[in-house]
Amino acid sequence: MKVRVFGFEWQLGAGIPVDDFCTHLNSLPGPPDSKKVVAIHDLGNFLGGVIISIKDMKAYCEMKIDGGKFKISPQQLERNARIADFNFFVIHKETHKGLYQHYHQSTATTSFCNFCRQKYNNLRNSKIKADIDKAGGEEVISKKDKKDIYQKYKGTFGFSILLKPENFKTYVQQMKLIKDFNIEFSSIEEPEKAYLPAAECSKRVAHRFVFSEESPVEMIKKKVLETLNVADAKKAQVHGVGDSGEEVIYRLYKDYNSFEEMEYDDIIDSISIDSEDLETSIKESEMISLLLKVAGQPSTKQLLTKPTK
Asked: What pLDDT, on the 0 to 100 scale, is given for residue 164?
């Protein structure tokens, strides 16, 4: 089974720095109250963490092979034992871009980011309510003071998945719904100059296409892919619903190497996570070290450390 490393980017609103948000994630309850555990700690220029997903399974099937014969039998887990999936990640503290380790049936990058979006927006709402209550409550606070509080926490959590060109096209083909499509060109062809006079003196030009939900999704996907095939796109972004049914944003970047890929069996023996010392579990994790090594590769470093315009 392959373990792959994907890129992602968080977009945070005002009033809640990334350090405060990560402290909040660390404070969330773990088992038995929750089936997910998140731990994040400071690694210098990066934050490093892990999300652990606990499954309800108390048994599994084991296959024993003897020559051309095999037997499958159920195996019971020990009492109080559960099957758990692990996904390590690193996030650059300034750009909020990161790398995420994933394998089949573990928490997907989009699911992780959607989990974080829910927790961030819940935290934002609770802070807004606390500030309003501190000012006397909904019945007392002035419209101006209330507006100032909402301005203090302006913006909700957003995210995007960073993809190389061939993967970007594959993900577009799998989408169930496309809401909008953005593309940026590094050069302008002659036909465009005819209806975009400003293009003649521009360094680059960008277009945004917004689609109706009633439009045939297969036709939209075809036209998006055709645009990517005929145009020299410097950057592109597509927003809609992915094959898992979750809202997603995919971004195309052409200025980085492919991320890491390894075998599950080669890394599983190195996994050790202790709830009584999660900071050490993260800082001494071989997977975190590998992610930081990938992040330090010249082109990947440029991608992760360069802010999105």
From this structure: 62
Please name the residues in contact with 60: beta carbons below 8 A apart, sequence gap of 6 or more: 74, 75, 77, 83
Q: Are residues 264 and 225 in the same domain?
A: no
| Pair of tokens at residue 187 | 């050069």
Using CA atoms, how far apart are residues 148 and 169, in angstroms rounded to an integer? 42
Contacts with 59 (C-beta within 8 Å, 6 or more apart), sequence order: 74, 75, 76, 77
Domain extent at residue 263: 1-58+71-157+257-309
pTM: 0.71
d(C-alpha 3, C-alpha 192), whole Å: 43
How many Å apart are CA 168 and CA 182, to the nearest integer?
A: 13
Q: What is the pLDDT of residues 255-270, one digit of tens each?
A: 333 578 889 898 888 9
- For residue 34, the SS3 value is coil
